[in-house]
Amino acid sequence: MSTDRGAVAIIQGDNLAVAQTLPSASFTLVYLDPPFNTGRAQERQVVTARRTSGEDVPAGEIRHGFHGHEYERVRGMLRTYDDRFDDYGEFLMPRLEEAWRLLADDGTLYLHLDYREAHYAKVMLDAVFGRDSFLNELIWAYDYGAKSRSRWPTKHDTILVYVKTPGAHVFNADDIDREPYMAPGLVTAEKAARGKLPTDVWWHTIVPTTGREKTGYPTQKPEGVLRRIVQASSRPGDRVLDLFAGSGTTGAVASALGRDAVLVDDNPEAIRIMQQRMPHAEVSTAAT
Prior knowledge:
By secondary structure, the chain is an alpha/beta fold. It has a single domain (8-285), classed as Vaccinia Virus protein VP39 (Rossmann fold), CATH 3.40.50. It has helices spanning 15-19, 41-53, 71-81, 85-102, 118-129, 189-194, 223-233, 249-256, 268-277; strands at 8-12, 27-32, 103-113, 134-141, 156-163, 201-203, 239-242, 260-265, 282-285. It has a nine-stranded mixed sheet with strand order 6-4-5-3-2-7-8-1-9, sandwiched between helices. Helix 8 (249-256) links the parallel strand 7 (239-242) and strand 8 (260-265).
């Protein structure tokens, strides 16, 4: 495997507007980690993003999705269960459509969410990609912070994985970091020494508060989680896209693994942190 560092392009701007300028089928891997719709501060973030992108859809307008699905029908169905869906759904749906367009035929999308939105997002992804393109629901489990004593403590995120072309996607099973067997005595010594391929449940700590990775960015994801994604679903020399780049973990990992990365964020603090973290990156501002 190549150890050459991949190029990194950091673009400051509205991620939907930037995505619309990128060429179709130009990325093998798209990772999206949008703001979680908690109904508090981040909901205001979502509304702001919609307003600046100009993506509000007039009442009654039907937006046709891929594979013959009408998004208006999907939206109506989801609103039946939760009328708060509109803000987040209208924000996320056009970005999922762009992700589909930007993926190469052998490409894969990873959509990182929490329990509040994962079920809604899966219905949207089925409409955009088609149900046959669903590959996995990954559970990233961790254990930190306060724990409720009135319900089961919530300590996981959900990562939905969809492919552009079912059966033609990149998946490098031999390149993925392996895990210890929970019962090594039940397998051969050779297998125990090698470890096992991870399942769809990933136990991985958050970014340590005093670790090498720590940037101080509030939504930073650990390199170990992104490394597994990049190793599995791209090859050296491939292009990786992150439209919600934040602290730049996707780019840092992709570049170290010999992939080229395009990172988009409109937060000046995120841009500053990414520049500091990846001095070799080229930084630009999207035209407005």
